[in-house]
Amino acid sequence: MKKHAILTILLLVFYTINAQKKELSLKEAVMQQWRSLRPDFVNNFQWIPGTDGYSYLSKNWQTLYLSSVDSEKDLEALTIQQFNESMKTQFYGFMDLKWLNKDEFILSDNKVYIKYSVATKTGETLKKLPDSAENITAHHLTNQFAYTIENNLYVNGKAITKNKNKNIVSGQSIARNEFGISNGIFWSEKGTILAFYQKNEANVHDYPLLNIDETPGKLVSIKYPMAGQASEQPKIGIYHVKKNKTIYIDPKGAIDDYFTNLTITPDEKYIIVAEVNRDQNHMWLNVYDVKTGKFIKTIFEEKNDKWVEPEHPAFFTGIGNDFLWLSEKDGFMNIYLVDFDGSESIKQLTKHTFVVKELLTLSPDKKFIYYSATGENPINTLVYRSDFSGNSELLTKEEGTHNFQLSGDGAYWYDAFSSLTVPNKTLIWTSNGKMAKGLGTSKDKLEEYNIGTTEIGKIPANDGSDLYYRIIKPANFDASKKYPVMVYVYGGPHAQMVTNSWLAGANLWMHWMANQGYIVFTLDNRGSAERGFAFESQIHRQLGNVEMEDQLTGVNYLKALPFVDATKMAVHGWSFGGFMTTSLMLRNPGVFTTGVAGGPVTDWKYYEIMYGERYMDRPDQNPKGYDQASLLNYASNLQGKLLLIHGTVDDVVVLQHNYALVKKFVEAEKQMDFFPYPMHKHNVSGKDRVHLIEKILTYILENNK
Predict the structure, then answer these.
(1) CATH number of the domain at 446-703, out of 3.60.110.10, 2.40.160.20, 3.40.50.1820, 3.30.1330.10?
(2) I need a labelling partner for 413 at 20 to 30 A (CA). Which of 248, 298, 504, 640 fits?
């Protein structure tokens, strides 16, 4: 048979197979990525204390299953219907289940807490909290509950603070959730001490948001400290449960310093807190007396002419008050052992030239530290183990993104991972690295759909750094054709868009867009996460400059590809990505025909203190940097089509950003488009997200010509 005849047959087979596949709808892509199209996984895996057994839940969260490492069969232990009938409740599922011992767990619906025995199929209600309770923090060992109602803190039903002044807020997170802060209530190990954040927001400006769901519309004020203006004044309270007494620490620094990464020592005598000055270039790890609130000592301090950003609390080793600390003072996030009482207090355990991401757990015998890190390839999340002499070992041999749990006896560990080529694979390993049990490998649920390819690569930045990118091609990709491009950009700190995980970190709607005949491209520029301080800190005092330089390096790479139509390039991003999108359109006009910017920062003087001042300093300290980054100065440069989008009650990037830029466009007599999403915050969620993504992609398809 002649070669051209064979080729014809092969092409016919290829197109026949593809013709039989389903087309992915945009609604499916948006709404089902983490539902029906998500790879199969072990739902809510938990080791059961004191055993080699484990539990997991059905996909709908309504059936509890039990198994063990040696078991070949799984036991259906309990359904939520059986639980509800037994306890006279109406819980939806077992989402918030936490094992207490081998027989009992605690389950809550966030207001009612029940202890239940799977052995006897009986339970007792531990606590019913008020409907208005928020920020609920339980100490299950002693059956105690702390929570907030409005601006005050309650412990076991008793008001610990009674501030009628709404500017005094207790028990909530502070510093607008920067520095890794996500809560404001901290129980001691034995439950006799409770520490809490308190903030005085009297000097912070009220910022108005319009609630249109009332008639007439109603202004709702939030506290929003903008760069250079008055900040909140934080305090730390210490509540002694048995004495029913609250004291406050006597802070060492200025009234607008940051109190971050708070912990109570295991002996319940001290509080350890990382205090950061407002300029965020000096950190003191300070110790305070629990009984008096008095300052005891500074364990160590760190300075940097750019920023110091502690994001992880002390991780106690189980040996006295000694603890592990994560710091990137040597250029990469590494693990340090801190002797609480010793004069030679700090020992560096890991000396990686890559990023340690998280301290996971200690072995039961306290000999090993388990932690996650990128490894040599920064797009991975791998699991390592180190002893206290600093000897480190890689546990997860397959590259990808791993999730890890150590069994209570330390004999086994659970590993669920994905990569660009593995949707999800779940295994149990012995502590010495032998596979003990396979829990399943998910099929690719997108196989039945007409889906294109995803590739990960890297290109050099102008300073020689590696810039990782993701490129998505359409299902019917033809290398002899020229394709328009959509660049999806974030570009800001604390985020990594390109990862060695299923779909390489992409949203599924990007594949829908690719199938409209597009190349969809994303690049992590300098300033983005998981690359070390030198890579990430080049943005200091000049947000937008280095990031755009790298994005344009990506554009030049695209232009050199034979299948890219360099005359038809669009860009889209949200939040910092909205800032980047608008910056690229206005400060580099003509590169992109079309831009869609969601929730963009348009001038950093309108953004919050805690984040903005870390990267830009205060406006009076860095007027040139603020002026250069302000998009309000470039409105007259607009070429092509630009759509600005904003949630009308955005409390992160307030609507003033977009309004101010639109005003400048009007003054410059430049036409652009603006679309509000009424009563949505910083992003558009729920079913309205389909409308949002359709708005973005339709705008690009219609205008990138």
Answers:
(1) 3.40.50.1820
(2) 504
